Amino acid sequence: MRQVRDGDLGSMAVLFERHHRPLFNYFVHMNGNRDFSEDLVQDVFVRMLKYRQSYQVDKPFSAWMYQIARNAQSDAMQKRRFEVELGHADVTITHGTDEKLRRQQEIELLRRAMARLPVDKRELLVLSRFQNLKYEEIASILGCEVGAVKVRVYRAVRALGQIFFELSQRRMAAPGEEMA
Amino acid sequence: MNCEDLKRNFVEYWRGNLNAAELENFEAHLASCEQCRAEADGLKQIWSTLGEMPEAEPGLGTRTRFYAALRDMERRELEHPEMRSHRFWWIRHPAFQGAFALAILAIGIFIGNTTARSSGQVAQLRTEVNSMKQLVTLSLLQQQNASDRLRGVNWAYRAEQSDTEVLAALLATVNHDSNVNVRLAAVDALRNFADSPVGRRGLVQALNKQASPMVEIAILDQLVEMREKSAKPAINALMGEGNVNPEVKEHANWALRQLQ
């Protein structure tokens, strides 16, 4: 990013190849919409080029990128009055062994639980679990202390577990209910 | 370490980020506290299942749009160095970028069709589109993921026959890619360069560098299809190799007969 900041825009291609997939997944987990997420990925890279002078070499690149990503999503949400539809994300449940099917259903249930999680908790899980960011990086993105991140992530996992448990109970109470 | 300390460190424990002292304290408490153990077990399952969620794959359009935007920005900065200032950055809004690219293409085609004067403009647009295709192809061919490289090979079909960089990348793929499917697809894509002497020579040379019988057979078929008589020594050399696959040897014999 230092090279990009210093005027070598072509180096952004390397950063794009390395980061566009995780970034796309971040958005998909946050808003559940592929097309919207692709637009946001584009927006983030354009913003990084645009605001490249604001990049500080002594800070982690990923923290800077996700800060821009959060702003991009927040701006887009305001403009579009976008409704999060995570619960309706496309999921293909293929037929296989009972164990495989059970595992896929569990994953689908967890996806629904994620969709019901408040957005701040969902974001913490996306950053820590899917993006595998260090607590220091998350703290830098969210503008808080590492200790706070520890507590928040724990609470987010716990909240997710609670919702997952409730959904599982409901499914067991109505086993004929369709997953869609 | 008390119960709260432990819970705060659940995730770092699962991620393997605790240091030796923290780990010892953590495990000591876990062993002695049944309640924490139960909670840790339950939440660990949630954490593990989260990790099994499949990753979403962005569409190829994401890459195409980014490279188009990047090239556009580079070109604009070269042409108008003053645009490095922040005054005109609104132009780089993604919606504007996409619309701009399409509009330029449409205008170029329209003007090209209606007036003879704009042939230079159309030629320039064509050059830009070709450069973009080349960039996407070369970028995809360098990916770790075999399915990305396969897509790169598919993009190579859109390249101009005169595009030596894409040709070189395809030949490198045929000779060095770790995945047989990608190598086979690259052999097919080289058909696009059948009129290029470099492409034909590269394919002949690739014949003796292969370890996969499937790829050898695909190359032999292609050489026959191209009526590449200069390949005969290479085919003979292939047949002379001690460990050549019997099916390949048979096919090489057939190829030699075809090229007589």
Secondary-structure arrangement, i.e. CATH architecture of the largest domain in chain A: Orthogonal Bundle
Number of domains of chain A: 2
Oligomer: heterodimer
Q: Give the tally of β-strands of chain A.
A: 0
> Helices and strands of chain B, in N-to-C order?
HHHHHHHHHHHHHH
Largest sheet of chain A: none
CATH topology of the largest domain in chain A: Arc Repressor Mutant, subunit A
Question: Which regions of chain A have little confidence, pLDDT < 50, spanning 5+ residues?
Answer: 88-94
Tally of helical runs of chain B:
14
Number of strands of chain B: 0
Distance separating the two termini of chain B: 83 Å
Classify the helix fraction of chain B into a percent range. over 70%
**Helix content estimate of chain A:** over 70%
CATH superfamily of the largest domain in chain A: Winged helix-like DNA-binding domain superfamily/Winged helix DNA-binding domain
Structural class of chain B: mainly alpha
CATH class of the largest domain in chain A: Mainly Alpha
How large a portion of the residues of chain A is in β-strands, by DSSP E? Answer: under 5%
H/E topology pattern of chain A: HHHHHHHH
State the end-to-end CA separation of chain A: 43 Å
Please provide a written account of the structure.
The complex is a heterodimer of chains A (180) and B (260). Chain A is an all-alpha fold. Chain A has 2 domains: 2-80, Rna Polymerase Sigma Factor, Chain: A (Orthogonal Bundle); 94-173, Arc Repressor Mutant, subunit A. Helices cover 71% and strands 0% of the residues of chain A. Chain A contains 8 helices and no strands. Chain A has helices at 2-5, 12-31, 34-50, 61-80, 98-116, 119-130, 135-142, 146-173. In chain A, α2 packs across α6 and α6 (119-130) packs across α8 (146-173). The longest helix of chain A has 28 residues, at 146-173. Chain A is elongated, with a radius of gyration of 18 Å. In chain A, 34% of the residues are buried. The model of chain A is unreliable at 88-94 (pLDDT under 50). Chain B is mostly helical and 260 residues long. Chain B has a domain at 3-51. Chain B is 72% helix and 0% strand. Chain B has helices at residues 3-8, 10-14, 20-32, 34-51, 60-79, 94-114, 119-141, 146-156, 164-176, 180-189, 197-207, 213-225, 232-240, 246-259. In chain B, α7 packs antiparallel against α8 (146-156) and α11 (197-207) packs antiparallel against α12 (213-225). Chain B is flat, with a radius of gyration of 28 Å. At the A-B interface, α2, α3, α5, α6 and α8 of A face α2, α4, α5 and α6 of B.
